[in-house]
Specification:
The complex is a heterotrimer of chains A (381), B (415) and C (153). Chain B is an alpha/beta fold. In chain B, 39% of the residues lie in helices and 16% in strands. Chain B has a single domain, classed as 3-Layer(aba) Sandwich (Peroxisomal Thiolase, Chain A, domain 1). In chain B, α9 crosses α14. Chain C has 2 helices and 10 strands. In chain C, a hairpin with a 6-residue loop joins β7 and β8. The chains are: A alpha/beta (381), B alpha/beta (415), C mainly beta (153). The interface between A and B is large, with 67 and 69 residues.
Chain lengths: 381, 415, 153
Amino acid sequence: MEKVGIVGYYQVKLASDANYGRYEMIFEAVRGAIDHAGLKKKDITTVISATNDYYDGRTISNCFTVEVGGGYMADESKVEMDGAHAMLYGLMRILSGNHKLAVIWAGSMPSCFPYHSARLYETDPTWERPSALVTDISAGGFQMRAYMEKYGVSAEDIAKVVVKNKKNAAKNSLALPEAQMADITLSDVLNSEIFADPVTELMYAQPCDGVAALLLAPEHHALKITDKPVWITGVGWNQDPYYLGDRDLSRNKSMELAGKMAYDAASIKDPANEIDVAELSEAFAHEELIFAEALGLAEAGKASTLNSGIDGDIAINPSGGALGGNPPCATGLIRIIEAVKQLQGEANGYQVKNVKKAIASGQIGMCAQNNILYVLEGGGN
Amino acid sequence: MGRQVCVASAGFCEHASKRSDVNMPELVSEAIADCLAKVPSIGIEDIDAFVNGNMPAFEGANMPELWMTDWMGARNKPLMRVTTGGTTGGSVAIAGYYSVTAGLPGIDTVLAVAFEQQSQGDTSVGLASVAYGEISCLNSLGIPLEQLSRLLSAGAAIGVASYQATNYMRRSNITEEDLARVVVHNRHNAAKNWYAHLKMPNLTIEDVLDTPYISFPLRYGMVCPASDGVCAMLFTTEEKAKDMADIPVYVNGVASVANETAILGYDGAGAGQLDPSEQLGARRSSELAYGQAGISFPRKEIDYAEVYSPFPNQELMWVERLGLFEENTATEMYKNGTTAINGELPINCSGGVNSTNAIGASAMERPAEAALQIMGKAGNQVPRTVHTSLGHGWGGALNFVTLMVMSDEPQRKWR
Amino acid sequence: MSEKIINITKGLVRAEFNFWVGLYMDKFYDGLEQKKIVANKCPKCGDVFVPPRKICGKCNETIALDQNWVNLTDTGTLTNYTITPYKINERGSRKVKKDQIIGMVQIDGSNTTIVYKLLKIEPAEIKTGMKVKIEWQEKTKGAPEDIKGFVKV
């Protein structure tokens, strides 16, 4: 795989109710990313967005974002998944040699749509949807119970992830203010209200408003734009079957396969030792542990014993992860941006020391049905 | 740089206004089976990755690719979903091309699937919601809803297309009879295409002009049906395509460009204020796609074209804007038989969108048909050998255009 | 402009959907109407599906419509459960006073699970692996809700 560089990025500060026009927010992110790279609108050759018609409450929602997303008269398309999947399509477009600069942007505003209802529209309308018992909420409960019972993991172990991520989020100025909890304790998490037993409210990554944008360029062009590009050295993506009963919810096979594909491309043999930072899109706290195991950072059932703090053996979600704010569609792209910041040494307040290789993931679907993983490497060349 | 990409196969399911015998995943599986049946040397397990898309709001299913994973054969395989409204099929096909050309490790053969089962929802309401957001925005500025709905006549596609039609008619000085002629051309072709929806082998211009207006100048007999249907295309590398198909079809140029936002546009500055038959996006798309394919004289170099025209005026407009004919001459070409199946530049021998419109699939059926014409496997095959063909898609509000230029020989290297 | 204004006019555009269930599910729903569980079986791997499907995702094998049907009992094993106060419909979500107990149940003889409410049971009594039985609606109509839920055997 040829090298493709990430040459600029921007993330709008997350908010539970941004009270800010959707298009203004997209414009702020895309303009911000172009400014961050010191480029101009005319340099853009392709734009890939990630939004969802149901989240935007409107058919063909992307036909309203052409101009604000920088797509006027540029070759553009939309990936209706996570922003991390949009970056995959942008990466393909750069690798084709047809394009010199790709803008990837993604985001949504759950403050103006019923998020759980939009997720309910994902379910099989000929079978499960009428009774509305398979939802993103109940699926999270099933997944956590399956993981706990299979490996004997306790609720405290999972609450520890919440404490770590919410404390990390407190150091991240762009995280959701409500999720920045410098003084959170284990008992706060365990005693918060029941969300979908055994998941408590604080174990769930609350959807919030946010948009993020990122720029990709081929190797030779990236080096002209910035002296510290971050290289995409591996990518893998994969989809699990739909019905929850067809899957072993205690693990995540699609993430395992996505990880294998990305590691193979990046020639990573021993992920636990080679990777310095992991930014994983966890819709629930337990997903961080399931993903860490799927990605070979820990043995099956043992992820809760990892020292995954900012100064730990392997830093997982030093930015606070999705528990620090989960804007649908943008979450995965923000994870990538956070990994880029770590590699460039620009994660002010939560910088991990000496980062050479990082991974970042995005997901969609119930219990993370479709996952995508990137391996990113820093260094001028 | 990217690899050479070929289309190895394309497949369809039977289209109809109501495919009530199947649910959405089952419908999709039919087209995939048809697509793979044409390449007997491989099976579903040889597909490395999938691209999928439809217009989710029309069927009331958000991200339906999650649900239909198993029916597509995509269990624990890489899958990406691309949707761009009416152009979804074209965008999915283009994403299929990029998935192969990128040369990501292990991704050689990619199945792209686009579908729509419109009988499950209300497409007009779905389409009205395209404009709806803007209407409420202007509404709050003091323009009443009644006035806005008059401005947009119907709000849905017809409302948009009718004033695009009047604009085009004024520019090109054509009559309603000229529009009806295009419809007759399409429906006669559709009668010879196995999966087409509206098959009318005996339709006459008079028959079309005898139907009532929906919105001037578009009559009931001129507009596309709403169909249930699926299209699948198989993209792979040059080497593998040579093993799979007798005539691998090289994808030499792709583009998808929009030049404005919506009907009213942000702050009311969209196509409603411009000439909607001008089509800067289409011109830019053809510039890009022809440039990649090394085509300098589209009229001479392209042997066959499938354009996306739910309404007859659009067919006339597209063939001009895409550089296949000089401006304001398209009508003449339909009169003198240039665009007929045995003409110099046959257009829409499949019957086109005008005869079969499963919206999400339609824009993929265009490149799929164009590819099959090169392979000699189309439902209504052109008798002459087709070397280079064009598949076009239209969508967005008025101005989003996807293009795929294909040929029986690889890209010219001197571009 | 705040997008909130759009919320006020919510409901102006409302599309109706009617989903074709397909011939496989049709047969399943006919079974439910007679209070029977009708499943189908992959001819290759032998997995039994509730509800029946056209394609076995594991083998990529098409299961013919006219064969491989299996009749199952209305008993099963609870494989997983959750308790949530959230109720979601197509227009929004809300918290209700009485928690819903939702279980994943593997019908005896099948290789899949179905998701239904657990009835007449206290949270403390629930254990994964316990045997459960379908509680049918009195009047069935060939729809998912013909199964009211599952009760302890």
